[in-house]
Amino acid sequence: MQEAFAIAAKRWPVSGTPANPGAWLVTTARNRAIDRIRRERTLAEKTPLLCVAEAVMDEFDDTVIKDERLELIFTCCHPALSLDGQVALTLRAVGGLETADIARAFLVSEETMKRRLSRAKTKIKAAGIPFAVPGPHLLPDRLDAVLAVLYLIYNEGYSGRVDLGAEAIRLGQVLAALMPDEPEAHGLLALMMIHHARRRARFSGEDLVLLDDQDRSLWDMGQISAGRTVLDRAIALGGRGAYVVQAVISWLQTRERIDWQQVAEMYQRLVELTSSPVVELNHAVAVAQAGNPTAALHAIDRLDLDGYLYFHSTRGELLRRLGRHDEALAAYRRALDLATSTPERRFLTRRLEQL
Amino acid sequence: MQYALMIYAEPGAVEALADAEREAAYAQYFALAEDARCLGNVRLQPGETATSVRVVGGRTLMTDGPFADTKEVLGGFYLVEAADLDEALELAAGLPAARLGGAVEVRPVMQR
User: Fold this and answer.
1) In chain B, N or C: fewer CB atoms in 10 Å?
2) pLDDT for position A159
């Protein structure tokens, strides 16, 4: 028995690129468990060891990969990996996407994506990144890292050809199911669902459509109400974090009559949580929508966001509403200078023509 | 697994601290040296004492100073035994250099 174990242990260490990274990571984890057992053997000695070995081997058997998904997620989103690597590995190993599809979504060659994945996997193995759910003192930070990766994947869904938005929601559902008591996991899922439900209304052909002008019959009301249920769960769990607050904002904006005062209050809360000038910009927009464009413009002019397209387009819009046409034109022109995507350029050009 | 924790610190950063903080910082460096997981540690003389050697076209060239011309210099390193990267990173995060404007580079050691 001991001999068989030793032989198996010799064979297991993997070389080359494995076909299935999920299984590969479990294999690596198993190898590490064996290393640990070996170390413990020198310490503790003899018979009890074999029982431990068998138990650990069963635990990491390929057929129970499903039950190891949470460990897999935390390994893929380990902050010691490059962010690119975390995203790619999460999509490949947890999401099961093909390398070619991930490459297409991120507009890189398949070769580049292969290298990115292989670099991440090499580091996991060589640097001893654990295949484990972090302990309580590490968990908050590491869960934040996981949520950030999923949200990044979701936001990439806007530009790529592969529907990463739906994929991110699927991953978010897996995470929320595996961590049912984590409010921010539910908050992020709710945010992505409610946002995603409006995707068909956000574009008309190539043109960007603003919230006010969106055709609500194109919204997926079923998904919005499902997102609301997830949001209720997050709030019931005491969730008041950044994702929960954003989900609340997103939900408020699906109402027939939007309570902009409440939206502004939520953005204020988000400003306190994130200290982000972009969030302050959004707060100002809500203040303007609630009926106070002068206060909004005043707040915006304090922000240091000169290189940010939406800073200038928002200023342009507020100046237009306040009847300051020349300044509005200048702000929209500046925004157009900064626009890179076709829908953005077309939208700003139309705005300029209207002025 | 074994890891090297390489300490890159701004020279004088610890010395510039107030007495109590400086003592606390030294105590943290000593504590890791005394930790059962520490297999060895080396503290280096300041960067000004370094000589970098290169052999170019058969000639040995020497330059005064450390290899990399950066503000932070390698001040020493620990060799530690840790269960995984997370444990090694925690040990690294506990070293004063990590919070005093420097960094601790954590590298797995090649196993023979």
Assistant:
1) C
2) 57
Looking up residue B24, the CATH number of its domain turns out to be: 3.30.70.1060
Query: B86, A130: Cβ pair inside 8 Å?
Result: yes
How far apart are the C-alpha atoms of B89 and B104, rounded to whole Å?
9
The answer to whether residues A295 and A318 touch, using CB atoms and an 8 Å cutoff, is no
Taking the alpha carbons of B45, B95, B88, A171 in that order, is the dihedral positive or negative?
Answer: negative
The backbone torsions φ and ψ at residue B76, rounded to the nearest 5 degrees and listed phi first, read: 160, 180
**E strand or H helix at A203, and its extent?**
strand A203-204
What is the model's pTM?
Answer: 0.79
Q: How many Cβ atoms from other residues are within 10 Å of residue A192's Cβ? A: 30
- Our CA-based measurement puts residue B90 at a distance from the nearest CA of chain A, in whole angstroms, of 10
Residues 68-97 in B contacting A (C-alpha not used; CB under 8 Å): 82-86, 88-90
The better pLDDT of the pair B22, A343 is held by B22
- Residues with Cβ within 8 Å of B31's Cβ and at least 6 positions away in sequence, in order, are none
Sign of the four-CA dihedral B23, B29, B31, B33:
negative
Distances (CA, A) of A63 to A31, A89, A226: 16, 21, 32
pLDDT in tens, A93-114: 999 999 999 998 888 999 999 9
All residues of chain B having their beta carbon less than 8 Å from the beta carbon of residue A126 are 108
The C-alpha angle B7, B13, B19, rounded to 5 degrees, equals: 120
Chain A from 21 to 40: CB within 8 A of any B CB: 32, 35-36
Report the 10 Å Cβ neighbour count for A94. 25
Q: Chain A partners of B36 at a C-beta cutoff of 8 Å?
A: none
Give the count of domains, chain B: 1
Topology of the domain comprising A64-128+135-151: Arc Repressor Mutant, subunit A (1.10.10)
pLDDT tens-place string over residues B72-81: 999 999 999 9
A215 Ramachandran zone, left/alpha/beta (phi>0; psi -120 to 50): beta
Q: Of B71, B76, B5, B72, give the one whose Cα is nearest residue B44.
A: B76
- Residue spans of chain A under pLDDT 70: 1-66, 158-162
Residues 6+ apart with CB under 8 A from A140: none
Domain span holding position B66 = 2-108
Q: Distance, in angstroms, between A76 CA and closest chain B CA? A: 14
